[in-house]
Design a protein that fits this description.
139 residues, mainly alpha, two-stranded antiparallel ribbon, 5 helices, 63% helix
């Protein structure tokens, strides 16, 4: 996280103080790449979704909103003939459509299950922590 933050701040400072037109191009590429990474990150679970045939790890509301957001920005990029708006958002819309397709095909079975009440911790453990008398705790 810290490396990403520092890199972003340095890139912004470089673009802000640079007269080189390549600086804006480089900044646009970084922004497009980060947007695509954000939109593709839920698909890191695609192997588990297919293997378990359950898309509970994918959030339909987020995928749906991101899909429409990317479609609208793609249209805007097409209208204004801006490749930096059109292509990353079109790819993002396709990634979100893939998520929505997985949700529609496999469903969200685990998300609809009630929380299990059958597995309770033993008497000596509470919430996975051993029950130790306060007198035995040393700081």
């Amino acid at each position: 996280f810290l490396l990403t933050l520092v890199s972003g701040l340095l890139l912004i400072a470089y673009v802000d103080h640079s007269t080189d037109p390549r600086a804006e191009y480089a900044f646009s590429l970084v922004c497009c790449l980060m947007s695509l990474i954000f939109l593709a990150s839920p698909l890191s679970q695609i192997g588990n979704v297919i293997r378990l045939q359950d898309a509970s790890v994918l959030l339909p509301s987020v995928a749906l909103l991101a899909f429409f957001n990317n479609v609208l920005w793609s249209v805007y990029g097409h209208i204004h003939n801006d490749a930096f708006m059109l292509f990353p958002n079109a790819i993002g819309a396709a990634l979100c459509a893939l998520q929505l397709g997985l949700i529609a095909y496999y469903g969200r079975a685990a998300a609809n299950l009630p929380l299990s009440t059958t597995s309770k911790p033993s008497a000596e453990y509470k919430d996975g922590v051993e029950d130790v008398p306060m007198a035995e705790i040393t700081v």
